[in-house]
Amino acid sequence: MSKSNWTKRSLAAQGMGHIDPITRAVIPPIHLSTTYIRDADNRYTSGYIYGRPDNATVREAEGVIAMLEDAESSALLFSSGMAAATATILALDAGDHVVAPRVMYWALRRWLAEDAARFGIDVDFVEMDDLSKLRAAIRPGRTKLVWAETPSNPLWTITDIAAAAQIAHQAGARLAVDSTIASPFHTRPLSLGADIVMHSVTKVLNGHSDVVGGVLASARDDEFWARIKRVRSGQGAILGPFEAFLLIRGMRTFPLRAATQAAGAAELARRLSAHPHIARVLYPGLPQHPGHDVANRQMENGFGYMFSAQVKGGETAAIATAAKVGLWKRATSLGGVESLIEHRASIEGAGTPCPADLLRLSTGIEDPDDLFRDLDAALNAAHA
Ligand SMILES: *Cc1c(COP(=O)(O)O)cnc(C)c1O
């Protein structure tokens, strides 16, 4: 059977089936060299010149992600999700206008609100789940990028990617989607019409909470993509080769982890919805979630590993619940094999759309029964 017939799970498991040509090693080496020998005729026929624009181990990891995302271009790995996201914005021209969601990853919202203006980029924030608001925010001729995040942190708001792409394209703008929470296991934004997809690989793609990194993949190898490459090289924002190696290793089990984590999250969201100390569970897999119908259409293999729970008794009870867990770990970040719980408003600070009674939960691969019993005991202790 030829490699072109392998499924994504098989390709990811074997890091694209790559075998080292010199040693026949099944596991790739880590290319640490920062510089490469120039040919005697002054050319660089290997394609590698210096470690800041490019690296062979990074390219291997990028190949796995481009495959998972059905990207026509190769993917580009960055030193963090924020570096990948801001590179997309910095590839625009001064004077360009961006429409971004009100509910989104807080550090990028803050950068767009407070720092993008210094580069001449105007940003408006809208409820991206309401397409009429997105349409109204477009400034004809000036809007060059619509930035969406779906499901969006920490309310798991769903944006209709195909519809948002149509609105952006009609205005001559591109659609970029932060798909960190969905991951390529649940959604492939490029196949739904998005132009750029972004992930924090720090989360479920690496999945072991030991790499900070980000990635972009593009539907087309065009002039905008070339600009993004120049931004990465100019800023020196490429991922390190050791991190790329760990990421390839993490992605070997990505489809298995994503499936297990989504099944656990769905079960916990369902069981917690009926809990006497929980006011509301936010999870796109629940039929009562406002984005459920769109999520049902555009997501596959389930609804992801993230959900939030609003605790009866408000902020004090929510913080007290997080203080009492044992198996869940009280920490920020998400997507790892270990389950994490966080009182989210505490980290987002002023201006957050996050309710004060909200706990954000990232489901790992532990036994969902253990995870439920731990939360149940913490909720009961916080309400005793
Ligand atoms: C974590 C995260 C980011 C930022 O990624 P870093 O790797 O921490 O820079 C962006 N978007 C979402 C949805 C995230 O969860």
Looking at this protein, list some descriptive labels.
globular, binds pyridoxal-5'-phosphate, seven-stranded mixed beta sheet, 384 residues, five-stranded mixed beta sheet, single chain, alpha/beta, 14 helices
Structure in words:
By secondary structure, the protein is of the alpha/beta class. It is built from 14 helices and 12 strands. The structure holds pyridoxal-5'-phosphate (PLP). Residues 80-82, 105, 108, 149, 153, 178, 180-181, 200, 202-203, 212, 214, 334 line the site of pyridoxal-5'-phosphate (PLP). Residues 80-82, 105, 108, 149, 153, 178, 180-181, 200, 202-203, 212, 214, 334 line the site of pyridoxal-5'-phosphate.
Indicate the topology.
Elements: H1 8-13, H2 56-68, E1 76-78, H3 81-90, E2 97-101, H4 106-114, E3 122-126, H5 131-137, E4 143-149, H6 161-170, E5 174-178, H7 183-186, E6 196-200, E7 214-218, H8 223-235, H9 241-252, H10 254-273, E8 278-282, H11 292-298, E9 306-311, H12 314-324, E10 329-330, E11 340-343, H13 344-348, E12 358-362, H14 368-382
Helix pairs in contact: 2-9, 10-14, 12-14
The structure holds pyridoxal-5'-phosphate.
